[in-house]
């Protein structure tokens, strides 16, 4: 078994002073590490049936698309404002270092579809909570929120109470 934490690089003071960024690019450039990460992310799901995987821009796209392919599910990109070409629903939120918003196509998820929300990191939980709100606004049923890593010291899981939340790595 490959220890995935060896492939996560800390970048101090990025994107601003006082933030320690967890960089997954060393993991992405190693095909064995990618395969192991994908295997572990899929194991987090257990026997859940998934219709759509929603990946949050941009690092949620890497494994989100691979998970969707492995599950035979559709992939839905959730993006920053102005990046999606069709009619969207949008919601603003606060980050640990500023403000942002997410958008999703209005026809991305059908009522009652079972959805896996995936992103690379669960930090303060604001991004994931907004993503859940948008999925539910479209009528999706969130089966699980799944992350490559959780920064547990930021208590982001508290914003996701009522959802099944899993992560491969915890810091």
Keywords:
single chain; 171 residues; alpha/beta; five-stranded parallel sheet; 26% helix; 35% strand
Tell me about this structure:
The protein has about 170 residues and is of the alpha/beta class. It has a single domain, classed as Rossmann fold (3-Layer(aba) Sandwich), CATH 3.40.50.2020. It contains 4 helices and 9 strands; from the N terminus they run E-E-H-H-E-H-E-E-E-E-H-E-E. The chain has helices spanning about 25-30, 30-45, 60-70, 125-135; strands spanning about 10, 20-25, 50-55, 75-80, 90-95, 100-105, 115-120, 140-150, 165-170. Strands 4-3-7-8-9 form a 5-stranded parallel sheet, with helices on both faces. It has a two-stranded antiparallel ribbon with strand order 1-2. A hairpin with a 7-residue loop joins strand 1 (about 10) and strand 2. The longest helix is centred in the first third of the chain and has 15 residues, at about 30-45. The two termini are about 20 Å apart. The relative contact order is 0.17. InterPro entries: Ade_phspho_trans, PRTase-like, PRTase_dom, UPRTase/APRTase.
* Gross morphology: globular
The average pLDDT is 96
* Order of strands across the main sheet: 4-3-7-8-9
Report the top-level CATH class.
Alpha Beta
Distance N to C terminus? 19 Å
InterPro entries: Ade_phspho_trans, PRTase-like, PRTase_dom, UPRTase/APRTase
Enzyme class: transferase
Protein name: Adenine phosphoribosyltransferase
EC number: 2.4.2.7
């Amino acid at each position: 078994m490959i220890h995935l934490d060896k492939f996560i690089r800390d970048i101090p003071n990025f994107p601003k002073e006082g933030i320690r960024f967890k960089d997954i690019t060393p993991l992405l450039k190693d095909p064995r590490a990618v395969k192991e990460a994908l295997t572990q992310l899929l194991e987090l799901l257990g026997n859940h049936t998934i219709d759509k995987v929603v990946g949050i821009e941009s690092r949620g796209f890497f494994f989100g698309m691979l998970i969707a392919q492995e599950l035979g599910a559709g992939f839905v990109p959730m993006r920053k404002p102005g990046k999606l070409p069709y009619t969207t629903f949008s919601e603003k939120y606060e980050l640990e270092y500023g403000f942002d918003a997410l958008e999703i196509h209005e026809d991305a998820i059908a009522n009652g579809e079972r959805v896996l929300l995936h992103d690379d990191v669960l930090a303060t939980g604001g991004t994931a909570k907004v993503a859940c709100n948008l999925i539910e606004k479209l009528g999706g049923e969130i089966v699980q929120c799944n992350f490559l890593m959780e920064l547990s010291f930021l208590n982001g899981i508290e914003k996701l109470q009522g959802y099944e939340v899993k992560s491969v790595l915890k810091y």
